[in-house]
Amino acid sequence: MASTAATALDRELTALFGPSADKAQVWAEIRLFEHHTLPLINELWELAQLQGYAQIFKYIYSSQDQECERERIRRLDCIQAHLERELGAEQTGTCAASVLLNAQLWQPAFEISHRHGIHSYDQRRQAQQQLLLQAAMHALDQHKPADWEQRIYQRLLAHLTAHSMTHTPDFAECINYMLELHTPTSERLLDALTFGNWAVAWADLCAAAGYTPPEPPPATIFGLWHELAPTARLQHMWQYSVSRYTLALIKRIYRTGQLSNATFRTLLELLPTALSHISYVLRSVDQGAQQLDAALHQRLDELTNTVLWEMVQDFRPESWPVLQQVPYFTGGRYLLRLAEEVEQRGITRLATRSQREHSAACTLRHLLQTLEHGADDDAALIELLRRLSTQTLLTILPYTLAYEQQIIAALGWDVQPLLALLRRLESQNPARSADPSAGVIHRDEILACTDRLTDAQLPQALEQFEPSYPAAMVLVRAALDLNRKELRRLFGRRSQLAARALGLLPLNDGELLQRYQQLTTYQHAANTSAASRKNFERAAAHAGLASLALQAGFASATRLEWAMGDQLGGSDGALGRCWEIAGYSVQLVLRDGKPVLTYDNGKRQLKHAPKLVTRDYDYKAIKQTLSEVQDQERRYRQAFLDAMRRGTKLTADELALLRRSPLAVALLERLVLIDEAGAIGLFSGEDGALIGLYGERVLIHGGATIAHPLTLQEADALNSWQAEIVRRQIVQPFKQIFREIYVITPAEREAVFSSGRLASRRMRGQQATAVLANLGWICEYSSADKFFHDLNLVAHFESGTFYYDDDAATTGALSFSKLRYEHGEEHRVALADVPALIFSEVMRDLDLVTVVAHQSAELGTSREVIQQRASLVRTTMAALGMQQVRIDEPHVHIQGSRASYRIHLATAAVYTEAGQYLCIVPERKKRKSIYLPFEEGGEPLVSEIISKTLLLANDRTISDPTIIAQIGHSPQLA
Hints:
Layout: H1 2-17, H2 24-44, H3 53-60, H4 66-87, H5 89-101, H6 107-111, E1 112-115, E2 118-121, H7 123-142, H8 148-161, H9 171-179, H10 184-194, H11 198-209, H12 219-222, H13 230-241, H14 246-255, H15 261-270, H16 274-283, H17 285-291, H18 294-314, H19 320-323, E3 329-330, H20 332-344, H21 360-369, E4 371-372, H22 380-385, H23 390-396, H24 404-411, H25 416-427, H26 443-450, H27 457-465, H28 470-479, H29 484-492, H30 496-502, H31 511-525, H32 531-552, H33 557-569, E5 578-581, E6 584-591, E7 594-600, E8 605-606, H34 611-614, H35 619-646, E9 649-650, H36 652-658, H37 662-668, E10 672-675, E11 680-683, E12 689-691, E13 697-699, E14 704-706, H38 709-714, H39 718-727, H40 746-751, E15 754-755, E16 762-763, H41 765-774, E17 778-780, E18 783-788, E19 793-798, E20 809-810, E21 814-818, E22 828-829, H42 836-853, H43 863-880, E23 885-888, E24 891-895, E25 900-904, E26 910-912, E27 917-918, H44 924-929, H45 941-953, H46 961-968
Helix pairs in contact: 2-4, 2-5, 2-7, 3-7, 4-5, 4-7, 5-7, 8-9, 8-11, 10-11, 11-13, 15-18, 16-17, 20-21, 20-23, 25-28, 28-30, 29-30, 30-32, 31-32, 32-33, 32-41, 33-35, 35-37, 39-43, 41-42
């Protein structure tokens, strides 16, 4: 009974892991190799000292660094010498063969560790696994065991029959080992495999391995793979894994005199991806010279041209997978043959790019796209093309760029401008792009292209080109007013392409304002979208507004927004409007630069809306009006912030337009501007002048920019304007004068292409992702990117695992690269070549993430943030004449009457100078009453620091007994 059970267990092990699983000798050889090799691996590679996968990876795998590769080989030689001393050369090779060819018996023990009940990969154990394999391969290079050939065949059978197989060595690598044998058995087996004699190959393989595999277990356990016949499994493994050794197989049949048209075609059809390897070597001069001798190179070139022409001529289904690997064709004869095939099959629409199955349409599309112009093509080609039907010419036209002119000439339609337009629009990927200029086009440009076609030609051309240019066709149809209903449906589903196309629909009377409001509503709603969609939707809304602006006669989307804002919020608009409801007056006014509703009962102004007013039916319309004006105010604010961040100039015409809007003026009058002549001052909406530091008024010369503090610092005017803003108690609509500034450090200049200033910071992943998305970054997996399309620049930040809800995400380096560059051109951009303003704002974005999402007591506060807070406290205290306050970053030092104190600028924590912590929590009302020179936004810590500074500087007025008790126990007073 026990014998029967043992036999059943042996069969199960063999079915799971191959014929070696039940052999005690194999297990003993594996353990012996591990016993002698693992201690040396740990010692030579110092695995216990290595930190992080990147460092481990450098020492394990082959590297382009020649010094590292030489060191790796030296260490493997040390292991080989030790093994040969302890085991002898023969036994070393035998044990190495067991390790390499039976990896599935031992690798799982190294791959998976059990920590906290979860399967996870241990980096050092994975390193040991890889180094064991490398040591085994190195040993086999020195000496192979006597039964090496039979072991290879057994490994091949295991791949075809066993259920649990690791990839090293895989089926193709075993075939490569066979190619090195040159024995009668291996030559006979390789012939059968190369020419597709699967039954013969299976029988020979079983005989060479010395055993016939048992029948596979039921399919319910092992799946559909084991339902296949052995020969079918062999054919599948050969066809889909051996292509990378195509050249070795060709050299072999060339050496044995079997390389002919028929055998070459058979080889290609049995290895569908082989042609890509052959074409690469033939087309690459260096690779061809290294891998093929001159005679074989010439022969292979001739065979490729001959066999491919035969395949195109008969166009059999078994040739389609091969033809889909063709990287290029040359010559008009191919064009004519492919066009004839399209016409004979009655194909009116070739497969779209999303289809990948091996069909006639897919294959024809691929061949037409890879066609290149032949040097021997002549004018007769056009006459031959004219014999084809109009439908066929239209079908192949979008896919045959090399012969576009000849096909259009044969067609006789003036369709080239439309094709060029479609190609340009589609290349911008308007269906999903973070580029706000993608799909932006003047409607008249589209009409100019379509007007070249007759009324009969245009619908046919649009229908035929749509599969090739689906996104571009939506824009073109919108300009022709052919898809209005469909666009409205898609726009309601928040389609990004529909938002871009909405600006191209023809404008009827009174429709401009309505269309503008639809797009701005979409734009505003994008702020609540998921992080993965937010910036794509913002870009789509901006593109729709830009196209709408061009159609309405405005120079840009910004000009359109300001013109519409003039209608919505100007003196003749909603601001100042008054409603009478139930004896109360409700008025929409600007208060502290913001639109609000005021309520008056005839005697006094009320703080809150009376219930009689809020319950009135008309109040809903009043709130809607307020919401629209607030939205317009937010758009002005964002436009001015973006203009400052990018250094965009406001022209004289734009400033004149903005002066007509009380909303825009209320914002601009709290900002510092610089005109083209270099004059600096606060904007005056009354006369469009700049008001300087001493009250002088200077008329703006030309246009003006909203001053970035970096620019003011370069002009040596930043400190003066910081003091003036505080002195006038101006609350700026966003951080301008006290904005953090980031400049390139000497270490970053030396590093050239990357900055590690914000690296190695642990973040809360989900929160960091949300902050980055709000700031215009696109987060995907382990990186975040911010695009500057107009500058051909993208910022790339290694953001750890921000994409996941991971509370241990660790940041990496910041770098910049070009969005578009020529092949072979350096795509990285040196940090010193990045515009200073862009570098500063990108760094500020990332620093803000560390402040909000950092996992530390100091909230990841950087040196630049500390400097900005110190500057603000210093300026405020100087304006108040408080001499007892001194700044010594990162602390504010205060000399009080009761004691001396210090406040940390990163955390607002208070200590006495003797080191005692003081627990002081400011009242909420007091915090709100503290003046800040910018709207607080998400940084209440600044007002807390200032309020605590004021409190402690006047500590004699403190009445809170808890605080007094803490100060009283200070060692300083004792």
